Amino acid sequence: MAVNPSGSDMKAFLAANPDEPVVMLNLLRFAEGGAERYDEYLAHFRTYAEKVGASIVYFGHGADAVVAEQGQAWDAVLLVSYPSRRAFSDMVRDPGYQEGTHLRTEALTEAVLQPTTPR
What we know:
Layout: H1 7-16, E1 22-30, H2 34-51, E2 55-61, E3 76-82, H3 85-93, H4 95-98, H5 101-107, E4 108-116
Antiparallel strand pairs: 1-3, 1-4, 2-3
Helix pairs in contact: 2-5
């Protein structure tokens, strides 16, 4: 299962409305030892998020699901607010940011990365 967006995913993401503010919902399932590795990724991520004006709205570890099908509980949830879809794209294309994405990949066995539109 993919844990990072592909080039075609990013193209479709930007086509929707590149200048629209977006909050990215991240649902995360950790590999063994992945929670600690993800903390390393978040330290790296914060540097590049700040460069594009993004901020972490919420990060928390999951508990037992109250309503969910078997296997739908997530280990953690991350919400990140970006000033625009283009800002997100600029961040993930930054070579410095890309140098640390292996931390995210190594930390996760499964992820959902879903844009949401603030209301």
